[in-house]
C-alpha cells in the first residue's frame, strides 16, 4: 500500500482517453486499480473487471 497505491492513483488520474493507431484505434490508460493482498492490479476499463479476477482467484 505504501509504495504501490500512490503510483497507481497517479496513473489512474492521467488521461485514459488517449488513442494510438490508425484504422484500428487502441485505447491506452487505466480507469481504476484494485489492491488484493500485496498486489496492485491496474484495471484497464473498470474496477469490476479486476473484482471479477480477484473473486475468481480467491475461490481457488
Question: What report would you give on this structure?
Answer:
It contains 2 helices and 4 strands, in the order H-E-E-E-E-H. The chain is of the alpha+beta class and 60 residues long. The protein has one domain. It has a two-stranded antiparallel sheet with strand order 1-2. Strands 3-4 form a two-stranded antiparallel sheet.
A few lines on this structure:
The chain contains two helices and four strands, in the order αββββα. It has 60 residues and is an alpha+beta fold.
Strand and helix map with partners:
Blueprint: H1 4-13, E1 19-20, E2 26-27, E3 32-36, E4 39-43, H2 47-58
Antiparallel strand pairs: 1-2, 3-4
Q: Tell me the helix content.
A: 25-40%
Tell me the total number of β-strands: 4
Order of helices and strands: HEEEEH
Report the biggest beta sheet as strand number plus sense, adding barrel if it closes: 2 strands, antiparallel
Strand order of the largest sheet: 1-2
Sheet/helix structural class: alpha+beta
Q: So what's the oligomer here?
A: single chain
Principal-axes shape call: flat
Report low-confidence residues grouped into runs of 5 or more. none
Distance between the termini: 24 Å
Q: Helix tally?
A: 2
Please give the radius of gyration in angstroms: 13 Å
Instruction: Supply the number of structural domains.
Output: 1
Overall pLDDT score: 76
Instruction: Note the beta-strand portion.
Output: 15-25%
Amino acid at each position: 500500500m505504501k509504495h504501490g497505491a500512490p503510483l497507481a492513483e497517479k496513473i489512474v488520474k492521467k488521461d485514459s482517453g488517449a488513442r494510438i493507431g490508425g484504422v484500428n484505434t487502441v485505447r491506452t490508460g487505466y480507469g481504476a486499480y484494485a489492491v488484493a493482498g500485496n498486489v496492485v492490479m491496474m484495471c484497464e476499463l473498470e474496477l469490476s473487471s479486476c473484482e471479477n479476477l480477484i473473486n475468481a482467484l480467491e475461490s481457488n
